[in-house]
Each structure stands twice: as structure tokens, then as C-alpha cells.
Design a protein that fits this description.
By secondary structure, the chain is mainly alpha-helical. The protein is 75% helix and 0% strand.
């Protein structure tokens, strides 16, 4: 029996590729199903939003200074890599002058 190394390597790459594709589809389905159910209160998306609100309430209750708040926000931003909140939807809910103020504040380092 002959052993074709190139064929075996291709089979392994195909297997790994299919595993990655199935994992990706699984992740997509785990977001799609709660989205179709309007994100029930026990789904992971709603739970993450509740964690963010709890952190905000904690900081407000203890009247943490702005630099501490920024450090905490930076930590969560790094930890969740921007996936914890939807900036666009937050800004859309604000009135125009407040939205412009926030955008100017966020872009102050660029100017």
C-alpha cells in the first residue's frame, strides 16, 4: 500500500477548513436565533447589555472621577473589543447638538 503524503495533507487542510466553517456558522446561528426572538432577557446579548448597565450604575453610584470611568470603559472596550455596545444606535437616539458634541469630543485627539 502506497501512502501519498500530498493527498493526506490536503485531507487534513480540508478537515480543518470545514471545522472552522462549521464553528463560524454555529456562531452566526447563536446570534441569529436570539435576534429573531427580539433578544429575550436570558440570551447572551441581553446579559451583556445588563452587565454594561450595571457597570454604569456602579460608577454613578460611587461617583467615580472621570479618569477612573475612562479606565473602566477602556478596560471593557479592550476586553470586548467594541462589541459590548452599539455606538451608532446610541448616537442615533441623541439630539443633533448633543451628538455633535460627543463626536467632537471623541475626535479631539485627531484635531
Amino acid at each position: 500500500m502506497t501512502y501519498d503524503l500530498a493527498s493526506a495533507v490536503m485531507r487534513i487542510f480540508n478537515l480543518i477548513g470545514m471545522m472552522l466553517l462549521l464553528c463560524h456558522w454555529d456562531g452566526c446561528l447563536q446570534f441569529l436565533v436570539p435576534m429573531l426572538q427580539d433578544f429575550p432577557s436570558d440570551c447572551w446579548v441581553s446579559l451583556n447589555k445588563m452587565v454594561y448597565k450595571q457597570v454604569e450604575q456602579y460608577m454613578s453610584f460611587h461617583k467615580l472621577p472621570a479618569d477612573f470611568r475612562q479606565k473602566i470603559h477602556d478596560y471593557y472596550e479592550h476586553r470586548y473589543q467594541g462589541k459590548m455596545f452599539d455606538e451608532e444606535s446610541i448616537l442615533e437616539e441623541l439630539n443633533e447638538p448633543l451628538r455633535e458634541e460627543i463626536v467632537n469630543f471623541n475626535c479631539r485627539k485627531l484635531v
